[in-house]
């Protein structure tokens, strides 16, 4: 099946600076894709190129079989929502939503019907006569979303639409965006630097760094099987341990020898980094063989329903390690600062990269 949107060899130069380097990506009909990466990685530039608000230095954009690489933004089939809402303060909510319909010369009755439908869709049925300044940040972003959907585009572009909102509103609105996207079957691209946001709603995540795509995959694939140190570090909490390769997938980390199930081979004596998620540990029913550790809890970080305990582990050459526990586990194990804790590392979850 042919992809809904194809980006082929997209490059973007700003003078001597390379903002995007050989971007190739195919997005399927009805898919929600997140461009994830730190500030300055090129994700917003790529979104603006798709929208026609920025021109690529080279490369091709195919949308539903049509080459739109050099089309004016008004000739492209999309709706867009910006971080800043970009509502007209002098227009009512209804007129803000209707703006694109008026420009396309829809009839008065058709506009009124569509605006009413969209206000109901975003849960603001009684707000049509109000002005943006009378609405909260979350409500204004709902209005911006309704305006983007007004002309029934087949592609929705979201440029960090939730970053200006407080945490509770952000979580609620991202769930609403996800619900609407699935309900409408709308192909959606969302730019974000928030890993939790991307992992919670995306069908696929495109991790970007320094103008290139580091990895494309489902949230679980990105989290569980990072293909580079950058992805491992950027997506979720992770431990990074210094080690030495000993051949046959064995690695020495301080006094401890660990065997990875990773297929990549490393030269004997090569310095490597072992990456391990805080939850990838065994606390109860420790293995009988001598590969478990005892750590001294130096600090406990409370994160709501879970906690991160930072341990200093003598067998790992006194390197620190973060282990994750639920709050219930913290109580059951009576974990506290200064306590010693025996544990084993889940070697099947270790990822190894060269230094």
TrEMBL record:
Family matches, as NCBIfam families: PhnT2
Positions of transmembrane segments: none
MF GO annotations: ATP binding
InterPro entries, per the entry: AAA+_ATPase, ABC_SmlMolc_Importer, ABC_transporter-like_ATP-bd, ABC_transporter-like_CS, AminoethylPonate_ABC_PhnT2, Mo/tungstate-bd_C_term_dom, P-loop_NTPase, TOBE-like
Claim: Methyltransferase is one of the keywords in the record: no
Protein name, UniProt field: 2-aminoethylphosphonate ABC transporter ATP-binding protein
Species annotation: Orbus sasakiae
Domain of life where this protein originates: Bacteria
Domain ABC transporter, chain residue ranges per copy: 5-235
SUPFAM superfamilies: MOP-like (SSF50331), P-loop containing nucleoside triphosphate hydrolases (SSF52540)
Pfam families cross-referenced by the UniProt entry: ABC_tran, TOBE_3
UniProt keyword annotations, A-Z: ATP-binding, Cell inner membrane, Cell membrane, Membrane, Nucleotide-binding, Translocase, Transport
């Amino acid at each position: 099946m042919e992809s809904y949107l194809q980006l082929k060899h997209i490059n973007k130069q700003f003078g001597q600076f390379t903002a995007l380097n050989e971007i190739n990506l195919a997005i399927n009909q009805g898919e929600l894709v997140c461009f994830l990466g730190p500030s300055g990685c090129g994700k917003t530039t790529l979104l603006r190129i798709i929208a026609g608000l920025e021109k690529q230095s080279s490369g091709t954009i195919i949308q539903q079989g049509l080459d739109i690489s050099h089309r004016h933004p008004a000739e492209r089939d999309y709706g867009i929502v910006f971080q800043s809402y970009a509502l007209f303060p002098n227009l009512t909510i209804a007129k803000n939503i209707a703006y694109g319909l008026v420009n396309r010369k829809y009839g008065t009755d058709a506009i009124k019907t569509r605006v009413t439908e969209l206000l109901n869709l975003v849960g603001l049925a009684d707000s049509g006569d109000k002005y943006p300044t009378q609405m909260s940040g979350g409500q204004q972003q709902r209005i911006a979303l309704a305006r983007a959907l007004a002309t029934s585009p087949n592609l929705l572009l979201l440029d960090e639409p939730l970053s200006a909102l407080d945490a509770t509103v952000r979580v609620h609105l991202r769930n609403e965006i996800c619900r609407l996207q699935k309900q409408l079957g709308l192909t959606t691209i969302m730019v974000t630097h928030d890993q939790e946001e991307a992992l919670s709603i995306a069908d696929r995540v495109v991790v970007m760094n320094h103008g290139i795509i580091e990895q494309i995959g489902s949230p679980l694939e990105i989290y569980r099987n990072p293909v580079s140190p950058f992805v491992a570090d950027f997506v979720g909490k992770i431990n990074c341990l210094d080690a030495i390769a000993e051949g046959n997938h064995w690695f020495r980390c301080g006094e401890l020898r660990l065997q990875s199930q990773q297929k990549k081979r490393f030269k004997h004596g090569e310095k490597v980094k072992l990456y391990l998620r805080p939850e990838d540990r065994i606390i109860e029913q420790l293995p009988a063989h001598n590969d478990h550790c005892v750590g001294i809890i130096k600090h406990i970080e409370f994160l709501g329903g879970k906690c991160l305990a930072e341990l200093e582990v003598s067998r790992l050459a006194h390197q620190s390690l973060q282990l994750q526990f639920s709050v219930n586990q913290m109580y059951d194990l009576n974990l506290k600062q200064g306590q010693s804790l025996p544990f084993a590392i889940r070697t099947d979850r270790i990822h190894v990269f060269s230094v």
